[in-house]
Automatic annotation (TrEMBL):
Residue runs in coiled coils: 75-102
One CC-aspect GO term: mitochondrion
GO molecular function: ATP binding; ATP hydrolysis activity
Entry keyword annotation includes Nucleotidyltransferase: no
Stretches for region Disordered: 592-614
Protein's name in the database: AFG1-like ATPase family protein
Family classification: Belongs to the AFG1 ATPase family.
Pfam families: AFG1_ATPase
Length: 614
């Protein structure tokens, strides 16, 4: 109940706070520049031709030899560690398949024996109690009754349950032992040091090796956690009904009503006893569809792990700890070492359990370069501009001309559409043309929208036009944070971005005559009320409960986190202009793998305007 209340109060708050600082996918393609070198979605183009994808070390060295990467000893070391991990995963996959097959047999045998014991107990009750079934002879034909003696009156459900479990241990044996998982990797380091690139090389190399793979960035991971929590609670409420399918096997038994009610009571008690903590149940659905074939190993690639509020600390600690305990191999990136993730000390005991699990199951590696390698990506031969600044008449004309050319290539029919967002919401796209969309800065960043909206846009549109992007200042700091989240999601989904901005990329977050964007002193004196308002404005749904304490808010909005987020946004914007990034859009973006994008609902046509002369 505590977590349910925390979830209700903080769920949307955590989405907002996620949007404040750092910007993942439900089986989305790997983010970053180098996913595309493994083919669409980073899943290994070579596997389509029956060949195994190149390992991370081979791929890294090939890119260095081709001049597409600058050699870095830290990166090569990580690539080597990831290569070794890939080589161990093939054997681990076979071991986990064997384990899950044994587990399936064990679970079915145990459930079959458990129901047989329950039926025998019910038969004894009906025979020795006041509930006598006149069709006793018919029952004898259905079950072979072995008289267990009278059931003691007053024996509690807990004792009955324990006795039944002990009998099952004797009849079926103990649960099979899972194989030991190879250690994963936790990569941390500065902006542009290559953490995400290396993780994505690993993710692509596991195509065809590991059956259950997911890659998340923080925002979408948190959104999916919320979604699964609602589903689990709803399912549990449904299962409490006497008409639940979980009790359907009882309805066909030839017992009278009171005996059936007793059986249902025993089943409900078993459910309550074995019912997992909500986060454990969510974790079990996080990587593997339990309705599908669940045999085999699982890996989780988690980009930009962070703990920015209480819900993030509790949710990530519970889910990652569960996944690591059940054999999932984790490869994660962050700008911080694990012990530095929770400097505010939120839910310290829970967080320390996560640290213990990470130490036990992951090797921690610093990607220690100080360089931002995105700035060193070759741009030779690039003639097309995608970032127009300052917003002069000439720059505006070129921006309009590019919109005109790209929409003509996409069919020229510009319409307004509505696309679905998570949690039953939707967002209108004012100008849309077959995977191309156009917005102004205020529409995307000046309204109460957040990561869920940006993810929906990024999934459905491979090319995004954004105009009227201002230089950021403290006066519009909340909009600046939304813009950072937007850039993160467009980058994660490998969208092509065309911008019309007031300043260069490097000057975008430097502030204006109104003052700097980053002002530590004003952070220190920011009130709880103001902080809650900023969080409310970036919500996916627009509602929020009470905010954190002033002390917690100051830590959440620390100068270190703000500056890291700004630097990352600049670094990603620079990379998104490079030919190497742009040439991979068609190979990597999800919309090219699902034509047409699902869920589009046309509202009205928009008459395209002729492009001004350049």
């Amino acid at each position: 109940m505590i977590l349910r209340r925390l979830h209700g109060r903080v769920s949307r708050l955590s989405l907002a706070s996620a949007a404040l600082l750092d910007a993942a996918p439900r089986a989305l393609p790997s983010a970053g520049l180098f996913r595309g070198f493994h083919g669409a979605a980073g899943d290994g183009a070579s596997s389509e031709h029956g060949r195994k994808p190149a390992g991370p070390l081979t791929l890294y060295r090939n890119l260095v030899s081709q001049g597409k990467l600058t050699h870095d000893s830290y990166q090569e070391n990580v690539a080597s560690e990831l290569d070794n991990l890939v080589s161990r995963l093939q054997q681990y996959e076979m071991e986990m398949e064997d384990y899950h097959n044994k587990l399936y047999i064990w679970e079915n045998s145990r459930e079959k024996e458990r129901r047989r014991l329950l039926v025998e107990e019910a038969e004894d009750k009906q025979h020795d109690g006041v509930w006598i079934d006149e069709k006793r002879g018919f029952l004898d034909k259905l079950v072979t009754r072995r008289r267990r003696g009278n059931i003691e009156p007053g024996v509690g459900k807990w004792v009955s349950y324990l006795n039944r479990e002990k009998k099952l241990d004797t009849l079926v044996g103990h649960r099979p032992v899972a194989p030991v998982a190879p250690k994963g990797l936790y990569l941390y380091g500065n902006v542009g040091s290559g953490k995400t690139m290396l993780m994505d090389m690993f993710y692509g190399a596991t195509e065809g090796v590991i059956k259950h793979r997911r890659r998340f960035h923080f925002h979408e991971a948190m959104l999916e956690i919320h979604d699964h929590m609602h589903d689990v609670w709803k399912r549990r409420d449904d299962d409490k009904s006497i008409h639940s399918s979980a009790f359907s096997w009882i309805s066909s038994l030839p017992f009278d009503v009171k005996i059936k009610e007793w059986l249902i009571g025993e089943e409900k008690y078993k459910q309550q006893t074995q019912e997992k903590h909500i986060l454990l149940a969510v974790a079990d659905k996080f990587l593997v569809d339990r309705q599908a074939n669940k045999t085999g190993a699982s890996i989780l690639c988690f980009d930009e792990i962070q703990t920015i509020d209480v819900f993030a600390v509790v949710a990530l600690s519970g889910i990652l700890s569960r996944l690591l305990s059940t054999g999932t191999v984790l490869v994660a990136t962050s700008n911080k070492a694990p012990e530095d993730l929770n400097q505010d000390g939120m839910q310290r005991d829970i967080f320390l359990e996560l640290l213990s699990k990470l130490d036990e199951n992951c090797n921690k590696i610093l990607v220690g370069t100080e360089k931002d390698y995105r700035r060193l990506i070759p741009t030779e031969g690039s003639t097309e501009v995608h970032y127009f600044w300052p917003a002069t008449s000439d720059a505006r004309s070129m921006y309009e001309a590019m919109w005109h050319d790209i929409t003509n290539q996409s069919g020229g029919n510009i319409i307004s559409v509505t696309i679905p967002v998570m949690f039953g919401r939707s967002i209108e796209i004012p100008q849309s043309c077959n995977g191309v969309a156009r917005f102004d800065f205020e529409y995307l960043c000046g309204r109460p929208v957040g990561a869920a909206d940006y993810i929906a846009i990024a999934r459905n549109y491979h090319t995004i036009f954004i105009s009227e992007i201002p230089a950021m200042s403290m006066k519009i700091r909340d909009k600046a944070r939304r813009f950072i989240t937007l850039i993160d999601e467009l980058y994660n989904h490998h969208c092509r971005l065309i911008c019309l901005a007031a300043s260069s990329i490097d000057d975008l977050f430097q502030g204006t005559e109104e003052g700097p964007l980053f002002d530590l002193e004003s952070f220190q004196f920011e009130t709880e009320s103001e902080g809650t308002k900023l969080r409310r404005d970036v919500l996916a749904g627009g509602n929020v409960g009470s905010g954190p304490s002033t002390t917690g808010l100051v830590a959440i909005l620390s100068g270190q986190e703000e500056m890291f987020a700004f630097r990352r946004a600049i670094s990603r914007l620079i990379e998104m202009q490079t030919p190497l990034y742009l040439e991979r859009v068609q190979d990597v973006h999800p919309s090219f793998r699902q034509q047409p994008p699902p869920g589009l609902v046309s509202n009205r046509s928009v008459v395209p305007q002729p492009a001004p002369a350049v």
